[in-house]
Amino acid sequence: MSSDNWEKLLTAFLDINHSEIELLRTVSKDVLSLHQSFVSCDLTDASKRIYGDNERLRKAYSYYYLFVNIPKLVYIFERYRRFLTTPEQVLDIGTGPGTAALGMLSVMRQAGRSKTSVNIDLVDKSREFAKLSRFLIDRFRRHLNVDGKTRYSVSDILRPEFPFKEFYDLIMMTNILSEFNTGDGFRECRRLINKVLRQDGHLLLMEPGSVSHSRRMLIFRDYLTANGWHVIAPCPSSQPCPALKNPRDWCHMRIPWSPSPHIIGIDERTGFKKSQLSFSYCLLARNERAATDHPGNNRFVVVSDLRKSKGRMSIFLCHLGEKKEAVLLNRQMTDQNAVFSRLERYNEILLNDVEIKGDKLIINKLSSIVPLKTNEEFA
Ligand SMILES: C[S@@+](CC[C@H](N)C(=O)[O-])C[C@H]1O[C@@H](n2cnc3c(N)ncnc32)[C@H](O)[C@@H]1O
Predict the structure, then answer these.
(1) Residues with beta carbon inside 6 Å of ligand 1?
(2) Do residues 244 and 305 share a domain?
(3) Atom 13 (ligand 1): residue with closest C-alpha?
(4) Do 55 and 258 form a contact (C-beta atoms < 8 A)?
(5) Are 66 and 168 part of one and the same domain?
(6) Could you tell me if 271 and 303 lie in one domain?
(7) pLDDT, tens digit, for every residue of 156-203?
(8) Closest to 118 in 3D by CA, of 132, 131, 105, 106
(9) Can you give the residue range of the structural domain that contains 173?
(10) How far apart are the first and last CA of the chain?
(11) Which of 123, 151, 260, 278 is the most buried (most CB within 10 A)?
(12) Are 51 and 302 in contact (CB under 8 A)?
């Protein structure tokens, strides 16, 4: 399904009219108020309101954040199709308006299998979000011809009683970690996913690409890997994340984006103006065999944009728990290393015969760089 299609469907199901100026004005005000709470990570206190049960805030979230987040999920589901588009039982924790499941369904349908079926369980502590999520997912299913059951439960996942007696192939947790505290919250969350994820199942985490949200996700990633989990993507290994060594560092992806007309209308009023979307994600497995396709000492992942200055190019690479700047002088460029000049964030490469100088990797005429096939090409 092209991005136009899911946008058109959701715009119709939510009855959004981008020329209703008064509506856009109110929604923009509420988007700003939600933004303030999200930026300050001011939602960990259990006594804070359940914003999904507030009609205006729910509308603001569904009109704005749903549309901003689905393209990120479409990117992830397309790139990691092999791991992500054939689950039979899926759990969406903190579903909100159903963002993660809607992103998954768009790509499942696009994969073009004749008959597609998936059961989806939704959990949210907000009754109104959980209901809206099921409504949108069921309408999506009918439209896209994806079979399966959608169930929802209004519950707090940090409490011991989990509502469903199911085991899942895929658990999704998107834009929720800042609503848990990193102590009890993370512990309870791990307890739950350990209990209900199948041994060969996958966990998908996704958070906004800001420093604080991204770092929180990386802390949760490290907490899981310290307890036996394995990272499939985007990291080159399951070693502790090197970005956490520096309090100002983080790790994120960035993709181009053409917002729909009502988002442009809201952005004009809030001043957000996005032409790119940045986000952090992590795909994990409990089973080591499900983890990386290319283990080994020469596998690197690009974690920054390429910088070009006179006679020189540089980029940051992540490798076995370390982040290093790789440098290539133009005069050292050969057919074997020329791909360096086209590297992009989260590209995976095999790097051989590189010189290590202090904390830099020097690419020279003897070095070779082989781009690894991105995961979707294995599908
Ligand atoms: C920022 S929204 C994210 C919604 C959706 N996953 C997305 O990516 O757009 C976070 C959601 O998590 C829910 N939530 C927060 N803490 C929760 C908890 N302890 N148990 C269940 N749901 C929770 C909130 O009610 C809210 O709907």
Answers:
(1) 50, 52, 65, 69, 94-96, 99-100, 123-126, 129, 156-158, 174-176, 179
(2) no
(3) 94
(4) no
(5) yes
(6) no
(7) 999 989 999 999 999 999 999 999 988 999 999 999 999 999 999 999
(8) 105
(9) 3-290
(10) 18
(11) 123
(12) no
